[in-house]
Amino acid sequence: MSEHIKFIQGNEVIVEGALYAGLNFFAGYPITPSTEIAEQLSARLPQQGGKFIQMEDEISSMCAIIGASLTGNKVMTATSGPGFSLMQEALGYAIMAEIPCVIVDVQRGGPSTGNPTHVSQGDVMQARWGTHGDHAIVVYTASNHQDLFALTVEAFNVAETYRTPVILLIDEVVGHMREKVVIPAEGDLPLVNRLRTTVKGGVDYHPYLPREDGRLPMSDFGGVHRYNVTGLFHDMWGFPSTNPEVVKGLLRHLIDKICNNVNQIEHHREYYLEDAECVLISYGSSARSALHVVESRRQRGEMLGLLELQTLWPFPYDMVRAKCKNAQFVLVAEMNMGQVLRSVKTAVDDPAKVYLANRVDGEFITGRDIRNILRIIMGKGV
Predict the structure, then answer these.
(1) Same domain flag for 27 and 175
(2) Cα–Cα distance for residue pair 348/323, rounded to 1 Å
């Protein structure tokens, strides 16, 4: 397959990226504004030898991809806020049982059924803490289609590398806008495939015994090895355990395998940060408006820069602190009540210099919305 160009929706870009990464099983339930993902895959996936199934709801969708992943498939589901809420218990199971899978959440207004056809970025904290208990999670986002394609592939790579669920958290504007995307030729982007055990059979296979590099080789469930899978704390054979050392060791493993590799997992883009006196921090479609403000104001001599986050969790505290070190002001632009703002305030040396430009009314945040806040904090006219 050679490189080719398409002009498509963001939801369709995710389909292209998932297929490029090797997706061969999708289970889902239609929900605005993510439905195009399921619709496209219902036709495309069987054409490539994969399996598509529409489930009765989002609970069963999440459970289906967990089962399919255990049998050796690269898997994905897609949903929006209400469906994402229903997936949280099974998401916790996938975290505990260390099952690779990708979950797409195309955000809409909430809570509850909220604003189904309008934009929001209100699921940031749900993506982090939606399932109960202490845990780590990987969450990617993007503001443009080329990055969205690459991060979709990266989501599958990270899921397979760390045996973990990965959430692709975009918003309705990115999901439904159309722009050019270059689909790379086969082999241009590296792919991580399932690490399978070399143990031939018998009782020597330990499904939860990490190698020296931290990776856990898997055996396709139903194959040559019989092993236990549970959402309970478990030992290296997969059997439930309440032994304090086993419980503590497993929990530390689940968190450390993500949090100790932030530098490998984290992605971002930066614009004009070298001399920025005011740093804008944004993500998703909000970052498009923020970049427009930065570039237009720099033409007037104002020293603005943009840090676009593409990894929301694990939050890159050290990177954000370093990029904002010399800024007089930091302005976070997002479409919620300040969910990333909280993490930025924790990251920077002086949280009092961090401000919020936001919208929560279902309308896209514009350059004017951001400039109105800039005018206040910088004491300058428009």
Answers:
(1) yes
(2) 9
Report the CATH number at residue 73: 3.40.50.970
Strands (E) in 18-92, as ranges, are 25-28, 51-54, 75-79
pLDDT attached to residue 381: 43
DSSP β-bridge partners for residue 355: 331
Q: Which helix (H) or strand (E) is 292 found in, with range?
A: helix 286-298
Give the domain range for residue 9: 4-183
3-state secondary structure of 22: coil
Residue 36 pairs in a beta bridge with: none
Radius of gyration of the chain from Cα atoms? 21
State how many domains the chain has: 2
pLDDT < 70 positions in the chain: 1, 380-382
- Helix, strand, or coil (residue 267): coil
Q: What are phi and psi of 130, to 5 degrees?
A: -65, -40
Write out pLDDT tens, residues 66-112.
Answer: 999 999 999 999 999 999 999 999 999 999 999 999 999 999 999 99
The verdict on residue 24 lying in a domain is yes
Pair (278, 173) in one structural domain: no
**Is 55 within a domain?**
yes
13 and 116 part of one domain: yes
User: What's the predicted TM-score (pTM) here?
Assistant: 0.97
Given 183, 218, 244, the domain boundary residue is 183
Q: Give DSSP secondary structure letters for 307-327.
A: EEESEEES--HHHHHHHTTT-
CATH number of the domain encompassing residue 359: 3.40.50.920
Query: Which DSSP string corresponds to 238-258?
Result: S-B---HHHHHHHHHHHHHHH
How far is 37 from 202, CA to CA, in rounded Å? 41
Where helices occur in the chain by DSSP H, the ranges are: 10-21, 35-47, 58-70, 81-86, 88-97, 124-129, 145-162, 172-176, 244-259, 262-265, 286-298, 317-323, 339-347, 367-378
Q: Given the structure tokens 């033409």, which residue do they identify? A: 299
Residue 246 lies in a domain: no
pLDDT of residue 201: 79
The answer on 300 and 156 residing in a single domain is no
Bond prior to 100 in cis (omega within 30° of 0): no
Is residue 149 assigned to a domain?
A: yes
Last residue of a domain, one of 183, 216, 238: 183
Strand order from edge to edge, sheet including 25-28? 51-54, 25-28, 75-79, 101-107, 165-171, 138-140, 311-313
User: Which tokens hold the place of 284?
Assistant: 């998703």
